[in-house]
Amino acid sequence: MSENTKRAVIILSGGLDSTTCMGLAKEAGYDLFPISFDYGQRHKIEIENAKQVAEHYGVAARHKIIKLDFLRDFGGSALTDDSIDVPNVMEGAEVEEIPVTYVPGRNLLFLSIATSYAEVTGSQAIYIGVNALDYSGYPDCRPEFIHKVEEVIALATKVGVEGKGITIETPLISWTKAKIVEEGLKIGVPYELTTSCYNGKAEACGECDSCRLRLKGFEEAGSKDPIAYLP
């Protein structure tokens, strides 16, 4: 690989948003270095989806899967604590508090580890599929958070001190789910290989808030979601 090659680390969950980021990074001319996290999530099946996505883009050999078991040990989230139920948020319901599906410190940890992988691979960018419209109560999906992490990367890394830097790319941050789907379909993102369901079954439940947002996005984009749902 030439030193002039554009490289990007993709935080790849195996879900719709992160897979769209993978496609957008490829379209932008980056050589892809996906990284996924096994943090004891209820929907651990998404790791298998991430593997399939990496295979689809021809970068399975570079795909890193990092275990963060302590997040399940900590609990405190419906995604890592079996004593907390995954909520089914009805369309139109107003969420006044941070949702119980928020995982404390997750994106801060993910970006820190992705930064390490970016330095080692000589990547100039990290792509993460955060969105400030969906789940606007998540503190680690806000533009302010991303900007502060970029500042820390500039101070805490060799490439930052040398003035080369690593940017955090958040192309979906202000997009609706429908726009995400529309743009992804234009560039051939393999949505059939993805999952969004928080309940982690082979067939998506169609009832959790993540499933509802996904289905609504496909409907508003005028397309049919290609994954299987429970009858």
Automatic annotation (TrEMBL):
E.C. code: 6.3.4.20
Annotated binding of Zn(2+), by residue: C197, C205, C208, C211
Reaction(s) catalysed by this chain's protein: 7-carboxy-7-carbaguanine + NH4(+) + 2 ATP = 7-cyano-7-carbaguanine + 2 AMP + 2 diphosphate + 2 H(+)
ATP-binding listed as a keyword: yes
SUPFAM superfamilies named in the record: Adenine nucleotide alpha hydrolases-like
Any Pfam family the entry gives: QueC
Keyword Nucleotide-binding: yes
Assembly with partners or alone: Homodimer.
Protein purpose: Catalyzes the ATP-dependent conversion of 7-carboxy-7-deazaguanine (CDG) to 7-cyano-7-deazaguanine (preQ(0)).
Designated name of the protein: 7-cyano-7-deazaguanine synthase
Annotated organism of origin: Paenibacillus plantarum
